[in-house]
Structures are given as structure tokens and as C-alpha cells.
Amino acid sequence: MRLLLIRHGQTHSNVAGALDTARPGADLTDLGREQAELLVDRLKDETIDALHASTLVRTQQTIAPLAQARGLEVAIHDGIREWDAGDLEMNNDLESVDLYVKVAMSWAAGQTDVQMPGGPSGAEALGRYDAVIEQIAASGVGCAAVVSHGAAIRTWVAARATGVDVEYAEDNPLLNTQVIKLVGDPQGGWVVEDWGW
User: Fold this and answer.
1) What is the pLDDT of residues 21-66, one digit of tens each?
2) What's the domain of life for this entry (predicted)?
3) DSSP labels for the chain?
């Protein structure tokens, strides 16, 4: 199957540089809403059979124009929300943000026993993401578009797919509404076709 992992549009917390991972999360900015609308045209050549978003409001706002254009319902999953920042929640200092990314990338490198300060371990975080992707794949759709979150997408792809390594994932953050395209399945594995499209 084809899997399109899409980072949500710009939020007010993105503008502040804050680690906003708790529910329900910040709304999209005016620019974020524009990015969501532009996503419809950017994906016009993709045959998409199913739409999925996380429980954080920004992903649902991002996917709404695409759902309306395609006439598809959006399935909501808690497992694909952003990694819990724990004690770092809503911090926007460079040290906190760097630590958050460092922990997430250690999970991608296989150190899944490492714990986010006051938050989950890599095994817990990746496990919940895996469960949703497995559910989507098991539905038998040819192509699913999944609106999720930057750190979660990068970490999961670096941990579970071929075609990129952890260093590449760390050095290439996703901008708002950028897409990582993958092909494969949970049993045979995933291959990255495009990063940051």
C-alpha cells in the first residue's frame, strides 16, 4: 500500500516554538489554514482511499479541506498524536527543544528504553504509532493519507522504514504540511519514496 504521512499546518504554538503535545493542542494560524487548503491541490494527482488524523485539533483542521474535496470521512486515532513532551510541555527554550528531539531520535536509533523526561519510553510511543499504522494497513486500502505530527512522523519513519537513516531524519525536519511518501506494509516493511514533498 501507499502511505502519505503529512505534518499538520502551522499552529500558534509553532510560531512560539513551543513543545505543544497535550490534548487538544493549538489551533491552526491563518497561514496554517491556507496551507491546509493548498494541500488539496498538492495532492490532486494522488489516489487516496482513506483519511486519518490524530486526536489533536490541528491535524483535524488540516485534513478537513481534503476530506471535503474528496468526500471522505476522517478516522481519528490517538496513537498517531505527537510524542508526549512530559516535563518539557510548552517549553520553547532551545535546550528543551533539543532534548525533545534528541530523545525522539534515540528511539529511531533503537534505544527504545530511553524515556522522555516525565513522558513515555520509545517502546510506548512507537508501539502506539505502530498499532494505528497496522490497523490502517489491515483495512486493505490502496493509499491512505495520515495527518500527524513532525517529530512523531520523522521518528517513526526513521525507525520503521528503509531509504532514510536516523541522521537524515534528524537533519531534515518536516515543514508544515510537508509529506513523506512510503510504500509497503507492516509485515514486509516500508520504503521511503519521497521525504518532505
Assistant:
1) 999 999 999 999 999 999 999 999 999 999 999 999 999 999 999 9
2) Bacteria
3) -EEEEEEPPPBHHHHHT----SSS-PPB-HHHHHHHHHHHHHTTTS---EEEEESSHHHHHHHHHHHHHHT--EEEEGGGSPPP-GGGTT--SHHHHHHHHHHHHHHHTT-TT-B-TTS-BHHHHHHHHHHHHHHHHHTT-SEEEEEE-HHHHHHHHHHHEES--HHHHHHSPPPTT-EEEEEEETTTEEEEEEE--
